[in-house]
Write a structure and sequence with these properties.
29 helices; 5 domains; binds manganese (II) ion; Ubiquitin-like (UB roll); globular; Beta Polymerase, domain 2; five-stranded mixed sheet; Hypothetical protein af1432; alpha+beta; 728 residues
Amino acid sequence: MINPISKFAPFLVGEYPKSFMELVNNITHHEQMTDEDLKINLWKAYEFGVRKHDGQKRKSGASYFHSHCLEVAKILASWNMDHITIIGGMLHDTIEDTDTTLDEIEQEFGKDVASLVNGVSKLGGISFSSRKAKQAGNFMKMLISVAKDLRVIIIKFADRLHNMSTIKHLSRIKQHRIAIETRDVYVPLAHRLGMAQVKWKLDDLILKTLNPKAYKDIDVKLKSSNKERIKHINLITKSLQDELSNYNIKPLLYGRPKSRSSIYGKMVERGKPFEEIYDVLAVRLIVDKVEECYLALGVLHQIYKPIQDRFKDFIAMPKSNGYQSIHSTVIGPKGKMVEIQIRTKDMEQTAEIGIAAHWRYKSDNVHSESIDGHVKWLRDLLEILQSEENDPKEFMHLLKIDLFNDEIFVFTPKGDLIQLPVKSTPIDFAYHVHTEVGHTCLGAKINYKTVPLNTALKNGDTIEILSSDSQSPNYSWLKFAVTSKARSQIRRFLNKKEREESVKIGNEILNKGLRRLKILNQLDKIKSSYSRFGFGGEIQLIEAIGKGEISIRNILDKISPNNEDIKKDDPPRFLSFKKTENKNIKLEGISNIMANFGKCCNPIPGDNMVGFITRGRGMTVHRVDCKSLPLIDEESDRIVPVDWEVGKKDLFNVRMKVVGQDRKGLVKDMTETIAKLNVNMTSVDIKVKDTVATAILIIQVKNLKEFDRIVRNVSKVNSIDSVERAKH
Ligand code: MN
């Protein structure tokens, strides 16, 4: 029920409450709507919120709507958001905390507001527990709602910022939990969305909550040095202003200390006290046009000497979150270093509120191109989310890499600039250029020299991809591909191929098996019975047979349970899928497989391994970095991932190479050290050349961890220089 008096009173008397006008005055984004219409729209939501939250109080004792919901709306207004988002912000807690229904909101305020409020309510229901997979899954849900409408996440940030700034009213335990969640989830996301202002505000509030003493210390020191700092800033800004006026540039200049959290970060990183952190201060120089940025830079460097290596041009090379600015640290007045940030007004807005600055509401197309273009990583993530495969662990891995690593810049042979995450390899580069280029990547040249595909790219490298139509992705690529795009494309390709492979094997098993049992005439009947085994079609049934998930015995038992002739027969053993003495190996998807260890690299549990399907000899197992594996040639499609299935008592031979100065008692000391660790040694071979002794020992270990322990202990033996795993 709507109370007509409270709704209409402001119009009649032409006066709105003070708290409401504070919101209106915060609005800077002007849409195609008169100020009066805007006020009417906002008032309706204000009145609705006040009524719905009536009687609710925050922990501080103040009215819930005024001290929280309205504050969130004010933050959104200050970020230039459209009135739909501001209304969404005002009503963001109505579904969760009052008896309001979604239908009611839709009826009163339309579909858009309703979907925003619904999105924010859904996000509120997600809690980020410490369990990894669960967290990743939640993260995913969160991002899916981002995909639907980025404004949901922007409202959530305003909500979180306000909750963090009023956190002192909560219990210590709650404060701690919320601060950790903010640190682990919201801060990285704010960084990625380019919301620098939100990020540093949150960072400061997190520091204040989790490390109040450090925060207080810095705060006190900043305040006590404030006067001096203002004087210093005035010296710098005055001289720059004077000089720039000669060029008819009237910049907006202001200086301020860096955030408490970034000062704290520097103190920890450099292990220095506050007094020795010289770059506490940053001065911003804001101009109208890009050309003026460079002109101002020239002027700056004329007045103050720049410090080498402390200059960065993010205008020419924007960060992937859209951040643009020129940074230069100079030796300012009185020999003090100061960082100057030069940018245009537009860039300033993007730098402060990131994605929110790019928000232009379009009723027909929620994803405006400018947003998508600016946040390429988001698009890549969405692509993965929309693909059939979304393993939370894999997703978390992608997210971590994408969120926390910095980027590098490399060049195509034509000189085009490409931005990739740190540790990217030629494979990532190839997939960045085009999926097809990735799929057919055979090799690569970095700076005109041929390199292995797992070489990490460095800033400024020029990359050329060599491709071949006969090449295709293989599992080993996943060991070194880091970008979301490359990893998802490789997986997609391999999954498809694995399915095809399984169908082939499945058909073979089925045909041979039925022929052997002399019931090949049942083939069609079996195939068409797929639904009895829970499959959606013939192909899926055959695929499952190929993968070993279902056997012919299982099928016949169900289809012809009374057929004694068939029952008497042994379980069919087709192909060579039976266990050999190498019971320690498990192939992904197939558990019983014939496998031999590669003699070249002797893998032990703990090593990363791959299997190589030989022609006729089943599979040989190698360490991933084994040199005898065909990494780049056309046989690499026969490389499959394998896992250990290790019994407690299983031991593995491993060759250890020990080099040291020969001396009396060396062998004895060495073997005693190993014996003390309760490890068997099956062979010792020592050669001495000049005075250098080289020993090859074969020892028996359970796994890599045990081997590493032995290496550490033997290294400590007197006169030994190096201990390592022998190659052959
Ligand atoms: Mn809230």
